[in-house]
Design goal:
The chain has 4 helices and 9 strands. By secondary structure, the protein is α+β, with helices and mostly antiparallel strands. The chain has a single domain, classed as RNA polymerase II/Efflux pump adaptor protein, barrel-sandwich hybrid domain (OB fold (Dihydrolipoamide Acetyltransferase, E2P)), CATH 2.40.50. Strands 1-2-3-9-8-5 form a 6-stranded antiparallel β-sheet. The chain has a 3-stranded antiparallel β-sheet with strand order 4-6-7.
Length: 126
């Protein structure tokens, strides 16, 4: 299981990689491992402004369906089209090609309250 140092993490197992005022969002390696084989991802929030911790979509694995939560407030400006055709990409490369959405952040200051890699490891290891 990998937890890259260059990302921020939420208690709900999403990661965020800021690039200026925008950021990529996905689920962690831990989350995809817990879910198992991902078979479908539904994100219908393109163009919507969402508050931090609100639901931006759902992810369906063989055994369960889970909500996806915004790590910070912002507008969904892009959805990774590749995951529609190949949802298993999230299992194979959760921090790279398996990203879910790109957002325009309201306030990068909201990143300050998210976990760094060390804090996230402590969360998942108990």
């Amino acid at each position: 299981m990998t937890v890259p140092d260059n990302l921020k993490y939420t208690k709900d197992h999403e990661w965020i990689r800021p690039e200026g005022n925008t950021a990529f969002v996905g689920i962690t390696d831990f989350a995809q491992g817990e879910l198992g084989d991902i078979v479908f991802i539904e994100i219908e929030t393109l163009g919507e402004h969402l508050e931090k911790e609100s639901t931006f979509g759902t992810i369906e694995a063989v055994k369960t369906v889970s909500d996806l939560f915004m790590p910070v407030s912002g507008k969904v400006i892009e959805i990774n089209d590749a995951i529609n055709a190949s949802p298993e990409m999230v299992n194979k490369d959760p921090y790279g090609k398996g990203w879910l959405i790109k957002i325009e952040m309201d306030s990068p200051d909201q990143l300050d309250v998210l976990y760094d890699a060390k804090g996230y490891l402590q969360l998942i290891q108990g």
